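Hi V.,

You were right to ask for the full record rather than a summary. Here it is.
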Amino acid sequence: MYLDRAKKEYQKMLQTLNWADEAKPCTVDEVKALEQQLKLSLPLAYQEFLLWMGHGSGEFMRGEDFQFGQLQSIREAALELMQLNNFSEPLRDDAVIFTMHQGCAFGFMQASEGCTPPVHFYIEQESGEGLIIWNRFDEIEGYLLDYIASLIKFFSKS
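Predicted structure:
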């Protein structure tokens, strides 16, 4: 529903790159348990993502920590990263950290910003400080479409 276009592009990407990836979904019960653990309602678009590939997807998003079993540890790592960088602006309680890259950047959304909230990123800088990029993507589908396009571009050149 919220990610229909991303799902279609994902299938095209698999064919273009000749990858045999298989998206591994979370169960509805796992998503509900995560909401209880976080004490908030997850945005519907993110729920759809978890129910599509919350347990991984082979080559797609390799190098990113985003899988269901990693969500608690990436939240803790993200908060620790901000603390190490002496970042003065804390994340709001409704921040849903959904991906972390190499321990130096993470993506998040605010659960209170609707069914398809904007995606934001925190990025550690060379200076050892941090930077939040607000509204990098209008929604999680935009983030996924950009990710798919970059993989096709990169691997098509190889």
